[in-house]
Amino acid sequence: MPRQPVYEQVIDDVTASIRSGTLKPGDKLPSITELCEQYRASATPIRLALRILDERGWIEVHQGKGSFVAQSPPA
């Protein structure tokens, strides 16, 4: 079975954490640097995952402040 791309793994993990209630609206996500270390990946796929999560309404990215779980994430 082919390995899942890192950005998809990040998206799946974050959405699962939000759905399960581990991450709640307003919670801050780890920094890009911390996510790079956690997933042993470069910043490029991490940024891509965060951008997709933002576009899909799961998180809100605030320049210079970080990424936060959206107040009303998708069901």
TrEMBL record:
<keyword id="KW-0804">Transcription</keyword>
<dbReference type="InterPro" id="IPR000524">
    <property type="entry name" value="Tscrpt_reg_HTH_GntR"/>
</dbReference>
<feature type="domain" description="HTH gntR-type">
    <location>
        <begin position="4"/>
        <end position="72"/>
    </location>
</feature>
<dbReference type="GO" id="GO:0045892">
    <property type="term" value="P:negative regulation of DNA-templated transcription"/>
</dbReference>
<dbReference type="InterPro" id="IPR036388">
    <property type="entry name" value="WH-like_DNA-bd_sf"/>
</dbReference>
<keyword id="KW-0238">DNA-binding</keyword>
<keyword id="KW-0805">Transcription regulation</keyword>
<dbReference type="Pfam" id="PF00392">
    <property type="entry name" value="GntR"/>
</dbReference>
<dbReference type="InterPro" id="IPR036390">
    <property type="entry name" value="WH_DNA-bd_sf"/>
</dbReference>
<dbReference type="GO" id="GO:0003677">
    <property type="term" value="F:DNA binding"/>
</dbReference>
<dbReference type="InterPro" id="IPR050679">
    <property type="entry name" value="Bact_HTH_transcr_reg"/>
</dbReference>
<dbReference type="GO" id="GO:0003700">
    <property type="term" value="F:DNA-binding transcription factor activity"/>
</dbReference>
<protein>
    <submittedName>
        <fullName>Winged helix-turn-helix transcriptional regulator</fullName>
    </submittedName>
</protein>
